[in-house]
Design brief:
Layout (H helix, E strand, L loop, with lengths): L1 H16 L5 E5 L8 E2 L1 H7 L7 H13 L5 E6 L6 H16 L3 E6 L2 E2 H8 L3 E4 L4 E3 L11 H7 L2 E6 L8 H4 L5 H25 L4 H4 L3 E3 H6 L5 E2 L2 H6 L21 E2 L1 H12 L8 E9 L1 E3 L12 E3 H13 L3 E10 L4 H14 L4 E11 L1 H6 L4 E4 L4 E3 L4 E6 L1 H6 L24 H26 L3 H4 L7 E3 H6 L5 E2 L2 H12 L4 E6 L2 E2 L1 H6 L5 H8 L4 E2 L4 E2 L3 H10 L6
Parallel strand pairs: 1-3, 1-11, 2-23, 3-4, 4-6, 5-7, 6-10, 12-15, 12-22, 13-14, 15-16, 16-17, 16-18, 17-21
Antiparallel strand pairs: 7-9, 8-19, 18-20, 24-25
Length: about 575
């Protein structure tokens, strides 16, 4: 083993001699992948796989540690990821700057998030006639109350609080006072954080951010951009003064020597190199993104865009069997889902906590069932922009009897018994059935509140003003002491390492697998997918896109009454 390690060390050393540089050109991805492709799917798709967020954050971390780097020139595109990813990248760039590395950014055109990243740079460059489409977080929701009424469709809802407003779009023509107040506070909090970041890093004010289109020339006039360049000049002449091409007749003005990403990685490998390496303990990161559902017990894999309780429970049990795994981070990004599935995962996580230290990290949204799951972890960490809270439960049930009659359709019942009407969409519920559902909502809500109170060691009286379905930004919920720390994902990993008293660990990320089965399904005609392409989103705030649940929820509620968190 030792001769091989010596050879490996010499390879790193020799390769570094020919690869040294102090100025790196580095592109920030427009999007990140939330799953891993199998080798077969990669061959079939012939499409370059997007980088994962955690891989990119570790790349930034390696750049920040490389003492040979003097400057990094970032290329920024039209950003498609959310505010959580944006915040995590911001923390990585700040660490680079803290270590004395100069940063420069170039963006041809983009959106608010592109401008946000550009504002973090020491030097900012744009292109002539470039423009940025600026849309601050806001909400403009569709309400289907009148439409459904005209169709003869009525939606009944049973909620644990007036702020649990999931059913409002199906019943009303506008937000209730409670929902409007709560959403306004959330939007104000997120807007305030965005404008504060801009003001702290640049000359951009809140008034400027309310202008829908910001031209590069305008950004020059308000001293945001340093100058305008061609993208070709920025990419090819980044080691030259002012990113300008060197005239053959003039003296060379190279200020830097080109560095490569591989040379930076080799530098980090040399710093961490040991001739007698010890076997590292493992911290796993479990990606939990999408709607929370029970899934099937015999399902062998976790799926992209869904949090399936039974497959994940099997995975948690496998983690418990691996004695090398000492820590686990639940990487959450979900607006909630099934109450029963959330409880199943909560219980399984508590079992795993007996042998593995567990933290949770909140990405763009960790609300309702997502927060329910997180309360099983020892500590909760979040970015400031996360949409969280929504402690409470709700059921919805459609009454389609009048609609059926309008189109000449009737139903006749045989063998119905007490409470059987709960599973029917034909006619109003009986008083007994309504009471049953209200009691069920109270039972689920009481258990949810108990889980939260146990996790945060608080009394129900203190929780009540924060419950009943209210939503908060991560920053606000932290101030309410419902989240332990505001941090980035890498800072959360570092906190767990310190808690475990490990200097070096192996990080393993468990992500959904994009298998051949999933690949084949993508070729099938999906009527729900087609409809969603033509129907507007239920909530649109410019930065965080919340999926429209209208037809999906209506369809599911007809066939399956379920408590939703």
């Amino acid at each position: 083993m030792l001769p091989f390690r010596v050879f490996q060390y010499l390879y790193y050393k020799i390769f570094r001699i020919f690869r040294r540089g102090d100025h790196l050109l580095f592109k920030i991805p427009d999007r990140f992948s939330s799953y891993k492709k199998t080798t077969l799917v990669e061959l079939l798709s012939r499409k370059e796989e997007d980088e994962t967020l955690i891989d990119f954050l570790y790349s930034l971390d390696k750049l920040s540690k490389c003492s040979e780097l003097r400057k990094i020139s970032f290329i920024i595109g039209r950003v498609e990821f959310g505010l959580s990813e944006l915040y995590n990248i911001e923390m990585g760039i700040k660490q680079i700057k803290k270590n004395g590395i100069v940063t420069a950014g170039f963006c041809e055109s983009g959106n608010l998030k592109s401008l946000y990243l550009l504002s973090l740079m020491d030097e900012k460059y744009g292109v002539e006639n470039g423009e940025f489409m600026v849309l601050l977080p806001s909400v403009e929701s569709f309400f289907f109350g009148n439409m459904l009424k005209n169709l003869g469709i009525q939606i009944e809802s049973f909620a644990s609080g007036s702020y649990k407003s999931f059913a409002e779009p199906f019943q009303r023509t506008a937000f209730s006072e409670e929902a409007r107040e709560n959403i306004s506070q959330l939007i104000d909090s997120i807007q305030s954080q965005i404008t504060t970041t801009f003001k702290g890093n640049s000359s951009i004010t809140n008034e400027i951010l309310q202008i829908p289109i910001l031209s590069a020339e305008f950004l020059i006039s308000c001293n945001f951009l340093n100058s305008l360049l061609d993208e070709e000049d920025f990419m090819e002449n980044y080691c030259n003064k002012g990113y300008k091409k060197i005239d053959e007749k003039s003296e060379p003005e190279e200020l830097y020597k080109k560095a490569s990403l591989k040379s930076v990685y080799l530098w980090n490998k040399l710093q961490e190199f040991s001739f007698f390496p010890k076997r590292k303990q493992i911290i796993k990161i479990l990606s939990l993104k999408g709607d929370i559902l029970t899934g099937k017990k015999d399902d062998p894999e976790i799926k992209s865009g869904q949090i399936l309780a039974y497959p994940l429970m099997n995975m948690l049990r496998e983690i418990q069997k691996d004695k090398r795994v000492k820590g686990l981070i639940l990487d959450l990004d979900t607006g909630g889902g099934s109450a029963y599935a959330s409880e199943l995962l909560h219980r399984e996580i508590l079992k795993l906590r007996k042998t593995v230290k567990i933290y949770s990290y909140f990405q763009n949204a960790t609300a309702s069932g997502g927060y329910y799951i997180a309360t099983a972890s020892e500590k909760m960490f979040s970015n400031p922009y996360c949409i969280t809270g929504s402690i409470g439960s709700i059921m919805i049930r459609p009454d389609l009897k009048n609609f059926y009659q309008k189109i000449g359709l009737t139903k006749d019942r045989i063998g119905f018994y007490k409470f059987r009407d709960i599973f029917s969409e034909y006619g109003k519920l009986s008083p007994n059935s309504k009471k049953f559902l209200k009691d069920e909502i109270s039972r689920v809500n009481d258990l949810f509140c108990k889980r939260v109170c146990d996790a945060k060691n608080i009394k129900i009286a203190k929780l009540k003003p924060l419950a009943e379905g209210r939503i908060f930004s991560g920053l606000t919920f932290h101030k309410k002491q419902m989240i332990d720390e505001i941090s980035s994902l890498l800072e959360t990993i570092q906190s767990l390492k310190q808690e475990l008293n490990f200097e070096k660990v192996k990080i393993e990320v468990e992500q959904p697998i994009y298998s051949l089965r999933t690949f084949v399904k993508d070729f099938r005609v999906n009527i729900k997918g087609i409809l969603s392409n033509y129907l507007p989103n239920y909530t649109e705030n410019g930065l965080v896109q919340l999926k429209s649940p209208f037809f999906e929820t209506l369809y599911r509620s007809i066939h399956n009454i379920e408590t939703i968190l």
